[in-house]
Amino acid sequence: MIKNYFKIAWRNIMNNKVFSLINIVSLTIGLSASLVIGLMIYYNYTYDNFHTDGDRIYRIVTESKRPDGRLSYNSGVTTALKDAIIQNSNFETVSDFHIFNAAKIENRDANLEFRNPEFIIFTNSQYFDLFDYEFLAGNEQDILSNPNEVILSEERASLYFPNAKPSEIIGKSLTYNDSINTVVTGVVKGFKSHSDIVFQEFVSLGTALQTNMRNNLVYKSWHLTNWTSQLFVKLNGLADVKDVEKYIEDVAFQNQNEASVKKGYSRTFRLQPLNDLHFNPNYAIYDIESSRASKSMLKNLALVAIFLLILGCANFINLNTAHASNRAKEIGIRKTLGGSKRQLIKQFMGETFLLTLCSTLISLVAVYWLVHVFSNFMPKGLSFGLLKDPIILLSIVIGIALVTFLSGFYPAIVLSRFNTIKVLKNQVEVDDKKFPMRKFLTVFQFTIAQVFIIGTLLLTKQINYLLNKDLGFQTEAIISFGYPQGQESISKRITLGEHLQTLPEVKKVSLGGSPPAAVGFNSMSIFHMNGADEIDVETQFLFGDTEFFKLYELELLAGRVYRNDTIRELVINDVFRERLGYKTPQEAIGQHLKVSDENVPIVGVMNNFNQQSLKSDIKPLALVGDWNRSSYTQFYRMHVALQRNDANNWMTTIDKIKNIYQSTYPGAEFSPKFFDETINTFYEKEIRMSKLLNWATGLSILISCLGLLGLVTYTTNRRIKEIGVRKVLGATVLQINTLLCKEFVILVGIAFLVAVPIAYYGVYEWLQDFAFRTSISFWVFLLGGLAMIVFALAVISVKTVRAATANPVNSLRTE
Q1: What pLDDT is recorded for position 425?
Q2: For residue 314, which of 746, 704, 749, 709 has the smallest C-alpha distance?
Q3: pTM of the model
């Protein structure tokens, strides 16, 4: 019986190739999008899910509150916290580690040197109690118990000791930063799955006392929080998370700085679940180049996948119900021969299953291609091989069953309900009054398509605004670069700048810190007495020499720039001036601000500019020189303005700069960055979203238009004799085309009216994330509606014009 169902199903599919092809293509698009997006969602939500008792592992993080209510977040904690909580019975394991930025590592036995390696930490055996590492060599019972010991990952071991087996590396020596000699005591295998715990070298905690971390580790101040000092805990099985959070909040409260509390500052500690590391943007992850997932973005992608799949199912329902009259006699004969309603439903569901199965197989091939084509949008490490995961395979099976049910159940019910007598008397009519679901689904399809079109247009408009808005400083033809670690000599940097300035292709050179717009700035509280009121202003600091202001073409509203690179003078922005309570820039000149218990004069007020992405408001900022040069320098980057009218030779100029740089710092890596490219990185997430939305829009239009083509084909075929009669009676091609198109254009118009408020609300909510945003122009909605009507008319006309121009003799010869 089942074999017979499938045989008949296959025959019906082959007898209706056009409709079957439309259904397969529609379902394939929806299934392909769902599979790709499903892989992305599953991959991101399974970060660090393989650790034993991972649901009980937390990172303790710091949350600080300012007097004005603003919150700041730090993934690090004070070094004093571990000792304060380690005896608490709620904690099964407490492990701290400290991130180490080594300038150089040497394998002196093999004469190998490695510059600026990443992912090195100082830690102890408790770290390996928390996370599941497999030891390939070394003593697992005695882990990092002595100073100057190091455990390497398998990957790092093969880098430092080429062609050596893990067991052969034990006892070998590595030297960090010329002076810290260590012995390899273990080699561990990398994690079996994707993780945000990315460390490759584990140096014993006692070794950190030989570095500049010594004071922080020895004195353990409650008032110094550094993100490099991390603290993880594993709760015992009976611990209540809320009770533990209350406990660490009490610890924070008991150790507050009284002076800070009086001024309205507060600090507390929070528990961050291990599986939250990959999603929470407030706290740093350890691989800054790794793509961090956004839960809201993943939810939006899931909605896109669901809508595309529903569009494919809607096509199937529309075409099958429209095509029902062609199968009426078959159904009548089957019922006459004793076929039950249940058997008919099974047959039609079998046809749907076959089409869905074909679409799924094609989708799997498409996914293999899409994963490679969209590799830039995929999380690092995601591959086609993830489809072998049992959960993914089970999801595909469930998906096939669900799509088969959604697509086939309603048409199967409709077809199986046909009255046998009316069918055999040829009295069955399949019109839209009898099946209003078709109109509803057509409107639904075009509503989704138009929401995507309008959303894409407005998103593109906002991105163009972000990339082209005048930020208040020069961004074109400016590069910046850092210096090698361990090379702290300011005189060498000044000499390098002087040599670069001699190049005729270089317009200006400046020593400084971050450029005017950056991801983060140094900030601190500055105090000012304005009459009887003490004003506390959280201020961002921008460091630069006397040429910095000119190089970036900042605008001075009043006063001057500081006289030399080290004098303690301030140039503040206009937002800062307003926060201090002065009505004009000129009034602020000569006023003194309290910076680290020292009164420093304001010598200039500059115009506001955007220090960060346009999602953020302009914040109080002070441009200063290299105040602490006697102890350390804040000029850690070189800024070079190239001749703007010589763009064709910029790369040649950069090569010249590289040669001078490497003659000053032999063997150092030269990594310049164009400033305008840095600005663009602020909006990588939005640009990726725009490209994905473009694809979603195209696919939704394609699915909707395929369904429309199928309906128009059926309607035109059903009315072919009517068209012949009208032509004989003198109707023109335009009149007939209008007659056939009118119904569908009305449905597209209704869809537009439904789509406008939905698209407006979605875009309006999205734009609230930006402090600076474009307007929601009404012409965008009109353009979106017009575009959809043009697409619909183009598809409809493919069939209607052909029908209207056909010879009526061919359709009326049997009458």
Answers
A1: 56
A2: 704
A3: 0.80
